[in-house]
């Protein structure tokens, strides 16, 4: 399956029940994260699989509420800590990181991997940093949790990283508090903190969403440079395809807690298969077009994750729901199928219909 | 931090002056409104006109108000002399005048009683913080458990039961019934253990009322803080959960607690008066109740000034703590 796939990652579509050893650095198999609530079971992630190699970047794209953050917190093992008195999240599937399965591992073992093997950058650096501790203190803490060194050594390391992520006068700024930094600087500090232990896997959950447009590009450039330098595997999560356009090797499009399209960046950008991806591409801001000229973005609201629509979860919003013959779109859930070269899509449409619609209706408007 | 400190100290000095002005104003006006003549009250039974005139002169009651105000401040800060023809005596600083009833200087009377009230208040604060915070934290972390429900029911009764009820009940059970603790006040200098034994019930009674409120506030704040993004960040760094709670969560939980503490140190005086009466503690509360009954103005004035200053200074300490905890306060 991975033979023809030119990048280091590959989708694993079918649910895997066997305990075959992992082939990739990070291998997520049929991950499900369900939350029992008063109103019913919220299926935030419902059968997600993907692979990621070191040195590669995977972009996970989908609108708000599609389960992106829940996926990343699931990999980090953060659904199972500190759920005081709450109903427990139900996780199933397998998460293999560097040959170890995490869901069945001892929680304290996973804690030791957090911050050292796998690290995370969050959307809003202001709320993600503790307002009462200096930036330096927080980076030092991240380092000393995993390294038995004195504070002075750790602080030197913090200054070094602040310098590396482009914070001017790092030896002074290390003593500043988060509220004394600008939004972009805060996110840089957050990145420095996540990289302090040289993690092999870095998950950036909407790292630029809370930032000014001008700062967004700088932060993305920084992440790309650091990835080259550190050689880690990177997952970038975003609701904006534009963010991952230049960064990602592979792209996974999520809808309603599931993967609807998966492929290399070229495949997803130049030969997108799924109507939802077309909508995402159509809603991408472009400098060379007038707002009105653009394809209409996806209308309607995301599906309920408690009562997921029968058949294709996208069918209430899909303009082409009637193209596949019969009522199949509303009765049967489309499987993730290989459409060539490792490129996968979950749609009932025939190849001919799909190509016609893409060539005649979609591509000219993009 | 230094400029913050200086600013706060300056504010406190201003506050103290305002308090003194207000107290002076009120006590200067009371005789006007009520028709009570301080000289008559001071003189007691001897009411011949000449003696009264002597007292008026001594107390400076006929002086212009600004002169009286100046003497009042001077008395508190450096002491003052009371004199009329031939008869003169010095009142040491801080001078709050002389009791109408006993003709003793007010300050030494209060100075005797101050340690009792301070000991009661300080002990109660320590107990209610320890009990309130730990009950609140455990309740939050074991939300919905038996322990949570038990602690919160206790807290509810603590908030709703009046001091004289819990006070007398605990006296009846632990002192008269079981004989576990002393039921009378012994000064600390005489015997520390007897003092301690006599203070346990008053402390716990006063602390119960406030501790209940703190348990509820701590629980609510803790639950909110545990959902903050920075708590998730700490966990994502691999910090152990007990450290996440003790360090990251507790630090933020302290902020509203300390704010409330600043407010409650004033309210504490009311509770202390009730507690002192219930347990017959010879503190300021008892003295002021008696003074009110006897219309002993100088004594009331003295207690008012001392408690007001205590509240202002306690608030200064709270503000400084606030600055230590939250770096954003220092800069604001
Ligand atoms: N602890 C939880 N309990 C119940 N529902 C949750 C919980 N966490 C997330 N969800 C739900 O899961 C869905 C996906 O959330 P999320 O992964 O945050 O979306 P996004 O793709 O925007 O990051 C949302 O509908 C959210 O309401
Ligand atoms: S399966 Fe039907 S509803 Fe779903 S995306 Fe394809 S065409 Fe649209
Ligand atoms: Mg999200």
Automatic annotation (TrEMBL), chain A:
Residues in the signal sequence: none
Domain of life of the organism encoding this protein: Bacteria
Keyword annotations: ATP-binding, Cell membrane, Membrane, Nucleotide-binding, Transport
Record membrane topology: Peripheral membrane protein
GO molecular function list: ATP binding
All copies of domain ABC transporter, residue ranges: 28-281
Subcellular compartments: Cell membrane
Pfam family, one: ABC_tran
Family label: Belongs to the ABC transporter superfamily.
Family matches, as NCBIfam families: oligo_HPY
Annotated protein name in UniProt: Dipeptide/oligopeptide/nickel ABC transporter ATP-binding protein
UniProt organism field: Streptomyces daqingensis
Phylogenetic lineage: Bacteria, Bacillati, Actinomycetota, Actinomycetes, Kitasatosporales
TrEMBL record, chain B:
Chief localization: membrane
Residues passing through the membrane, by range: 9-30, 120-141, 153-174, 194-215, 257-279, 299-325
SUPFAM superfamilies: MetI-like (SSF161098)
UniProt cross-references to InterPro entries, sorted A to Z: BPD_transp_1_N, MetI-like, MetI-like_sf
Keywords of the record: Cell membrane, Membrane, Transmembrane, Transmembrane helix, Transport
Residue span(s) of domain ABC transmembrane type-1: 114-322
Subcellular location: Cell membrane
Membrane topology, from the record: Multi-pass membrane protein
Pfam families on file: BPD_transp_1, BPD_transp_1_N
Family the UniProt entry places it in: Belongs to the binding-protein-dependent transport system permease family.
Listed name of the protein: ABC transporter permease
Taxon lineage: Bacteria, Bacillati, Actinomycetota, Actinomycetes, Kitasatosporales
């Amino acid at each position: 399956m991975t033979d023809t796939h030119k990048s280091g990652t590959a989708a694993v579509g079918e649910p895997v029940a066997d305990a075959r050893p992992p082939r990739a650095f990070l291998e997520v198999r049929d991950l499900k994260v369900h939350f029992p609530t008063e109103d019913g079971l919220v299926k935030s992630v419902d059968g997600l699989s993907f692979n990621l190699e070191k040195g590669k970047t995977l972009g996970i794209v989908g609108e708000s509420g599609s389960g992106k953050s829940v996926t990343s917190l699931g990999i980090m093992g953060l659904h199972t800590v500190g759920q005081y008195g709450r109903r427990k999240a139900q996780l199933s599937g397998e998460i293999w990181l560097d040959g170890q399965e995490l869901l069945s591992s001892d929680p304290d073992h996973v804690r030791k991997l957090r911050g050292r093997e796998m690290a995370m950058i969050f959307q809003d650096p202001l709320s993600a940093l503790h307002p009462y501790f200096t930036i330096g203190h927080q980076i030092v803490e991240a380092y000393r949790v995993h390294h038995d060194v004195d504070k002075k050594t750790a602080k030197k390391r913090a200054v070094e990283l602040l310098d590396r992520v482009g914070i001017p006068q790092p030896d002074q700024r290390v003593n500043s508090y988060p509220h004394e930094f600008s939004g972009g600087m805060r996110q840089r500090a957050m990145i420095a903190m996540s990289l302090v232990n040289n993690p092999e896997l870095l998950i950036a959950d909407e790292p630029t969403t809370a930032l000014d447009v001008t700062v967004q590009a700088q932060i993305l450039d920084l992440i790309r440079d650091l990835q080259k330098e550190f050689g880690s595997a990177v997952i970038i999560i975003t609701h904006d395809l534009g963010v991952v356009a230049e960064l990602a090797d592979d792209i996974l499009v999520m809808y309603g807690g599931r993967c609807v399209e998966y492929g290399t960046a070229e495949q997803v950008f130049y030969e997108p298969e799924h109507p939802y991806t077309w909508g995402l591409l159509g809603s991408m801001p472009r400098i060379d077009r007038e707002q009105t000229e653009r394809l209409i973005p996806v209308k309607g609201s995301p599906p309920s994750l408690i009562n997921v629509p029968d058949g294709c979860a996208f069918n209430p919003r899909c303009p082409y729901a009637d193209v596949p013959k019969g009522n199949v779109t509303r009765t049967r859930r489309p499987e993730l199928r290989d459409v060539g070269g490792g490129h996968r899509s979950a749609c009932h449409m025939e190849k001919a219909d799909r190509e016609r619609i893409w060539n005649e209706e979609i591509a000219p408007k993009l | 931090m230094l400029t913050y400190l200086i600013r706060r100290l300056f504010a406190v000095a201003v506050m103290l002056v305002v308090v003194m002005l207000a107290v002076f104003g009120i006590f200067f006006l009371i005789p006007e409104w009520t028709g009570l003549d301080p000289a008559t009250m001071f003189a007691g039974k001897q009411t011949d006109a000449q003696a009264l005139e002597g007292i008026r002169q001594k107390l400076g009651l006929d002086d212009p108000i600004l002169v009286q105000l100046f003497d009042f401040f001077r008395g508190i800060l450096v002491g003052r002399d009371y004199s009329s023809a031939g008869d003169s005596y010095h009142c040491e600083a801080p001078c709050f005048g002389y009791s109408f009833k006993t003709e003793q200087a007010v300050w030494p009377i209060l100075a005797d009683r101050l340690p009792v009230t301070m000991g009661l208040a300080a002990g109660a604060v320590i107990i209610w913080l320890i009990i309130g915070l730990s009950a609140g934290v455990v309740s939050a972390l074991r939300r919905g458990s038996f322990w949570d429900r038990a602690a919160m029911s206790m807290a509810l009764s603590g908030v709703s039961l009046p001091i004289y009820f819990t006070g007398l009940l605990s006296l009846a059970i632990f002192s008269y019934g079981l004989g576990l603790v002393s039921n009378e006040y012994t000064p600390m200098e005489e015997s520390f253990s007897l003092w301690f034994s006599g203070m346990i019930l008053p402390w716990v009674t006063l602390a119960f009322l406030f501790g209940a409120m703190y348990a509820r506030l701590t629980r609510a704040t803790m639950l909110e803080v545990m959902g903050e993004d920075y708590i998730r960040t700490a966990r994502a760094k691999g910090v152990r959960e007990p450290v996440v709670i003790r360090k990251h969560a507790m630090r933020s939980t302290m902020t509203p607690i300390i704010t409330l503490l600043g407010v409650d140190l004033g309210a504490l005086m009311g509770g202390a008066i009730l507690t002192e009466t219930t347990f017959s503690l010879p503190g300021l509360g008892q003295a002021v109740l008696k003074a009110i009954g006897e219309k002993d103005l100088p004594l009331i004035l003295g207690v008012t000034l001392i408690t007001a200053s205590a509240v202002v200074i306690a608030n200064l300490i709270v503000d400084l703590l606030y600055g230590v905890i939250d770096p954003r306060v220092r800069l604001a």
